[in-house]
Description:
By secondary structure, this protein is of the alpha/beta class. The chain has helices at about 1-5, 25-30, 55-65, 85-90, 105-115, 160-170, 190-195, 205, 210-225, and strands at about 10-15, 35-45, 70-75, 95-100, 120-125, 140-145, 180, 200.
Amino acid sequence: MQTQLLRQPRVAPSILSSDFAHLSDQVGDVMDAGARVIHCDVMDGHFVPPITLGPLIVGSLADQVHGAGGILDVHLMIERPEHQIAEFAKAGADMITVHWEATPHVHYALKAVRETGCMAGLALTPATPADVIADVLDEVDNLLCMTVNPGWGGQEFIEHSIPKLQRLRELLPEGVPLEVDGGIDATTAPRCRQAGATLFVAGSAVFGTPDPGKSYQEIADAIGG
Ligand code: DX5
Ligand code: ZN
């Protein structure tokens, strides 16, 4: 079920920009509008300066998201993510994404994610060249290309991401989702789609607007999702 969901282009609303006092309602709004991938940004105050959320919040959404046929896409912006994988899997994550830059043991970390039964995602920050993925391609179920520097919502899309996405698409085996994250809205999403992206994280362009369900729908329409 999980991998099938990602076979077609999808918008993944990022709860980072949501109103945490009404988190469940906010997630309900976007799922009612059709969202089936909910993106959770975990930050540790080391890999990136902010501290955000952990397994407790992921776990609090699991029944709601799974009950509506959705998946939890957990983006770990934390150092040595391999030490935390079991906790997030236990909390109900369906996909766990680790950063290339956050551990010397990327291959091990990706394998550790798969061993929990979750999909294994690999994320690259804007400064990391696309070609580094060559030796871990067999371990990757999803490739996340950061289109801003990780750490904050509401930043401007980095233009160099477009040729980088094209290169990543060339390197990735067919069918592996290519996720973009940062500065994604109804204008940048179709450009990334053109360059080969299939999964579109949107935080402020969804939850930073008065009607998150409608904003979700506008981006989904823009990518044909
Ligand atoms: C930033 C996070 C993103 C963030 C994107 O480091 O990884 O998922 O929520 O926010 P927007 O869509 O506002 O750029
Ligand atoms: Zn993210």
